[in-house]
Structure formats: structure tokens, C-alpha cells
């Protein structure tokens, strides 16, 4: 819910404030009027987004998902062509 209530700019500024200050996340959240767990999740998400391993993993996952969609589409096309070939072979008497 917190990701829709606050703008991306506000979230980024809040995360930067947490990182640049020596204050605990709960205190920064209280000062900003944000739930401390929401702010903690924003910080975790920012850390994951900056981690090159996570970025590579998400790129890999996206590529795998794209390839799986493509395989399903090609299998569907192949099945349609197989049925069409069978139909036309029956029509022509092959």
C-alpha cells in the first residue's frame, strides 16, 4: 500500500535520508510521518536494486520468462500447422 501512497521521488528521498543520517530508521520514519516498516522495506528494496547479483538475477528471470512465452507460442503454432497438414492431407487423399 505504501508504494502507491507516496511518490517515487519521496521514497527515494526518504531512503537517501536514512542512509545519510545516523538516526535509526524508526526515528526517520516518525519524522517523515511514514510507518517504520514501510520505510524499512523501501531501504531493503533500494539495496536489492543496487546489488549487481540481484540485478543480474532479475534480468535472467525476465529472459527466462520471455523465452518460455516464446516456446509456448511456437508450440501452439506447431500444433496448428500439424492439424492443418493433417486436414489437407486428408482432403487431398495423401
From TrEMBL:
Keyword Cytoplasm: no
One GO biological process term: DNA transposition
Keywords recorded for this protein, A-Z: Coiled coil
Keyword Secreted belongs to the record: no
Coiled-coil intervals, chain numbering: 57-84
GO molecular function list: DNA binding; transposase activity
Gene3D superfamilies documented for this protein: Homeodomain-like (1.10.10.60)
Name the record gives this protein: Transposase
Organism: Actinocrinis puniceicyclus
